[in-house]
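pls design
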């Protein structure tokens, strides 16, 4: 099905200057970028985005890291976009990520793991709405 998913290029990957390399992976896999912006997340924005993890032991470190520098947030559109983006990213822990995935190539650890992607269409809708208004999303017909 034609889907949308939400993606973050995290502060570690922005600092490595690989935004374009990562966009190339998305585009080469047939995903289209239909919204995009650079943000330096506030503590409140990061805590709200990751609210489901608020009781996990890594929550403080996660918020600290995600606010440590600018991120790129984007909406990706395409056939099976949610799963396709997860395949492009690889496993959350780069030690378990398959060769050729973003995490294998760019992530240093499970905490600094280069990118985020929605895990299901329902979370994608929630995450997209957290960062983008409808007017900021440009459906691509060609
Ligand atoms: P992300 O997809 O952005 O969602 C939550 C993040 O928490 C995750 O990627 C990891 O970078 C980070 N994290 C740190 N430790 C863990 C863990 N044990 N399990 C899951 N996520 C973790």
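designed seq:
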């Amino acid at each position: 099905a034609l889907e949308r998913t939400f993606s973050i290029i995290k502060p570690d990957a922005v600092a490595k200057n690989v935004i374009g390399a990562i966009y190339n992976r998305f585009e080469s896999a047939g995903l289209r970028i239909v919204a995009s912006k650079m943000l330096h997340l506030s503590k409140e924005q990061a805590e709200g985005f990751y609210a489901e993890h608020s009781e996990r032991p890594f929550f403080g470190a996660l918020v600290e890291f995600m606010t440590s520098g600018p991120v790129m947030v984007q909406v990706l559109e395409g056939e099976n976009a949610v799963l396709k983006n997860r395949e492009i990213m690889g496993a959350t822990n780069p030690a378990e990520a398959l060769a050729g995935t973003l995490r294998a190539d760019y992530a240093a650890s499970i905490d600094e793991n280069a990118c985020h992607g929605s895990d299901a269409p329902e979370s994608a809708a929630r995450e997209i709405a957290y960062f983008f208004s409808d007017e900021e999303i440009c459906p691509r017909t060609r």
